[in-house]
Specification:
Length: about 170
Amino acid sequence: MDAIVVMGVAGCGKTSVGEELARRLGWQFLEGDGFHPPENIAKMSAGIPLQDEDRWGWLDTIAAHIALAREAKAPIVVSCSALKRRYRDRLSAGGTRVLFVHLDGSRDIIHARMALRAGHFMPTTLLDSQFAALEPLESGELGIVCDIDSSPAEIAARVSARIASVA
């Protein structure tokens, strides 16, 4: 496996779980939000949902980092919403083996978590657009779904235990 992408809607815990998972595996962690261009951050900060055309460059940048990790034989964990199948296909293009870990939870739980975050550009008003865009993992995709009912450490432990069975 070349990379693990911890995916899901805003506020589901991608960064917290991804950091803990990377620590457990001894892999590098990359925060996908850090690769958004300023225009995307400005849109989201203003409460404007991103469209596919806003995401392609961002996804290509993340895919390039995954490809570099593959070439270096240094697998990585990346946080990235990866909401749609075509986004996930773009991240795993070129024979790159990417395991997608979908952090799944109810809108109410995620909304409550988002409301507690300080200093993040993604407002709670965009949560519904995230759920509307979300395409759950399909058969044929290398991935696992994990409920967000526990702490990030517990979720990362569950994911770690399941990696061998799906990889």
